[in-house]
Amino acid sequence: MNLISIPAFDDNYIWVLVNDDRRCIIVDPGESAPILTAIAENGWHPEAILLTHHHHDHVGGVPALRAEFPHLVVYGPAETQDKGTTQVVEEGEKILILESEFSIFATPGHTSGHICFYSKPYLFCGDTLFSGGCGRLFEGTPAQMYQSLQKINALPDDTLVCCAHEYTLGNMKFAASILPEDLAIQDYYQKVKELRAKNHKTLPVILKNERRINLFLRTDDIDLINKINQETNLQQPEQRFAWLRSKKDNFR
Ligand code: ZN
Ligand code: FE
């Protein structure tokens, strides 16, 4: 399978997995125009849509795609039932699409019903994990999001993390503000600045690299613990995650 990202809105990506016979799977089509153009240009045959959560910038293109391709199967969590989902999926389920098996993980936090789709090595994580950051907590608690990120962090090193937004530059600016002396963070921040200056994509990312530069995956890191200890004393990793998330919420 071939992995392709189609930009949508200001900073969304619609991910597409294409088979050798040009049949394809579309992930989180927030709007239909860019993906319909790509389908026509490339001669793709869409078979399925995967939805990670109910937000408009992830599901807005579903009605137009279903009108154009009535056979499409749309997989999504219960919270997307009124957004065009034809088959509700949940934690622990495995589904077979284009001869590939996808596992479903529940990853509440950004929304209550948020799910991720994993088909080795691809992880479609919507607005749960971003490169250098994680989704905002609109519906869930910090403890839920912490557990969701732990699930992702348990996947193999070579996992290709396909996030739904190009937020990497802002996330690394934040990371560098928290741990300015961290070489892995500084190096990646520089690299991302260069990529974005040329308008290049920073995604997908490899989970092995993400573990080194994403503070939200480093809640047991001694440098981060020392930094937090300058302000407050937090014993639990969930509490350190919550501290980090609220810092990011207020970061400009
Ligand atoms: Zn969202
Ligand atoms: Fe989003």
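The chain has two domains: 2-163, 172-249.
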